[in-house]
Structures are given as C-alpha cells and as structure tokens.
Amino acid sequence: MGSHACETKPTISRYSSARHRSSMKKPTSKKLKKPQHRKLPPLDLLLAKYDYNPLTGIITNKRTEKPIKCKPGCYGTMTINKRVYKIHRIAFYMFHRRDPKDCVIDHINGIKSDNNICNLRACSSANNACNTKQKRDAGVIPKPEPGTRFLWTMDRSKFLASSCSY
C-alpha cells in the first residue's frame, strides 16, 4: 500500500501516563492582560458629594468638610456607595470630566500620595512603565497628556512641576 499524505504515525505524548500528568504542566501561552479598572461612579454624584482642589490634590467631603486622607507613599482609596476607588482616578475624573477607562493614571513625579492635577496623566501601561524612579533620576522627562503644558525643574533628584496650565 502506498503512503497517504493524511496518514500520521502514532506519537508518544510526554503526558501519556497518569503518573507524569500530575507532575508535568502543559505549556501555556501567556497573554498580557490589560489592567481592569473598576467603573467609576457617575460624575454628577461625585461633584455633588465631593470637592476636588486641583492645586493641592485633596478631595474633600462637602457634607463633613473633611479631606479624604491619603497615607504618604501609598495610593489613597475612598469608599463611595460601599465600593472602593483609588483617589487619583477620582481626582483625574473630577477635573477632566472624562472617565480614564482603560488608561492608567500615572503619578509623573512618582509620589503616590501626590494627587495634584499637574502630577496626574492618563497613559498606557507601557508609558507608565517608562516612568520609573531610575529614569526620572536619570533626567528622562515623561510626556504629558496632549494639550497640557508642564515646566519642569530638577531639584534633589526629583521633578517638580513649577507651573501648569489647565
């Protein structure tokens, strides 16, 4: 008999015995996942309950007149309708009046508790990864959001926004 192109030879799989199946893992292809951000509450609810000062980066509860606290060196969080949100995402949303959705909100100077609007920018995960302490210390200036102008000065190995136009 002649050989056919569709005929296949029996192959021995390295996963064929039960003893080896449990100890060996099948190779998997890893896909990079986009960051999943929680859908932000309606803007009119935020504007009715909270006040955001873009110069200081502080969000204040209008009813109690108390600022939302943020520990130094940590991303601040706040609870709205029994759901937890990151303060920097809420601040960006309240100021720009648009949901950052799939974008990452980057702290340009690297200080996680600094929610000053000049320090926040919406960017991709790749652009955010370029804004590391080593690159900032080396003098690499991150690109600002389109339409925003920044004037940067180098002081004590950190970038400081000296002026910002809204």
Report on the structure:
By secondary structure, the protein is an alpha+beta fold. It has a single domain, classed as Homing Intron 3 (I-Ppo) Encoded Endonuclease, Chain A, CATH 3.90.75.20. It contains five helices and eight strands. The protein has a two-stranded antiparallel sheet with strand order 1-2. It has a two-stranded antiparallel sheet with strand order 3-4. It has a two-stranded antiparallel sheet with strand order 5-6. Strand 3 and strand 4 (83-86) form a beta hairpin. It is globular, with a radius of gyration of 25 Å. The termini are far apart. Residues 3-9 and 148-166 have low confidence and may be disordered.
Keywords:
disordered C terminus; 5 helices; 20% helix; Homing Intron 3 (I-Ppo) Encoded Endonuclease, Chain A; two-stranded antiparallel sheet; single chain; disordered N terminus
List the helices and strands and how they pair.
Blueprint: H1 18-23, H2 43-49, E1 50-53, E2 58-61, E3 77-80, E4 83-86, H3 87-96, E5 104-107, E6 120-123, H4 125-130, H5 133-137, E7 150-155, E8 158-164
Antiparallel strand pairs: 1-2, 3-4, 5-6, 7-8
